[in-house]
Amino acid sequence: MPARALSSDTLAAWLVKASGAAPSTREHVRAGFAGVETWCARPTYRTDLVAAGQPVLLWVSGSEPGMPAGIHAHGRTTGPARDGVMPMVLAPLAAPLLRSELVGHPELATLEVLRMPAGSNPSYVTPEQLDVLVGMCEELARPV
C-alpha cells in the first residue's frame, strides 16, 4: 500500500476550498460565514480523520475582482465527516491571507493547496505550515 500523505500526526488543520466565482462563495463572504454549518468533502481516508474541534481554513480560489485567492476564513470542525459532508463553523478573517503572500515562501512551498490547487476537499496543513501561517496572521490562532 502506498504511503499516505496525511495522518493524525501530520495534520494541524483542514483546508477546504471554494471558488471565488461561485455566487454561494460571495454570499458566504458577504454574510461573514454566518449559517455555514457544513462543507462538501470527497469521502476518502482523509475524511475518516475528521473529528470535532479540529482547525479549519477556507481557501478561496480564482482571480475574481474583490475576491483574491487565499485564506479568507478560519474555524473548526464540529463533528466527524459523514457521507461527503464535514460539519464546521467558520468566521471571516479581518483581511485575507493572500496567495500572493504565500507563493514562494520557503516554509510554505509544500502547502498542498499551492502544489495541487485543483485537488479535492479536504486539503490539509501540517503543524509546521500552520505555525508559519499563524506567524503571518495571528487571527488564525484565535478560537471560533
UniProtKB/TrEMBL annotation:
InterPro entries: PUA-like_sf (IPR015947). It comes from the Bacteria. This is EVE domain-containing protein. It comes from Nocardioides pinisoli.
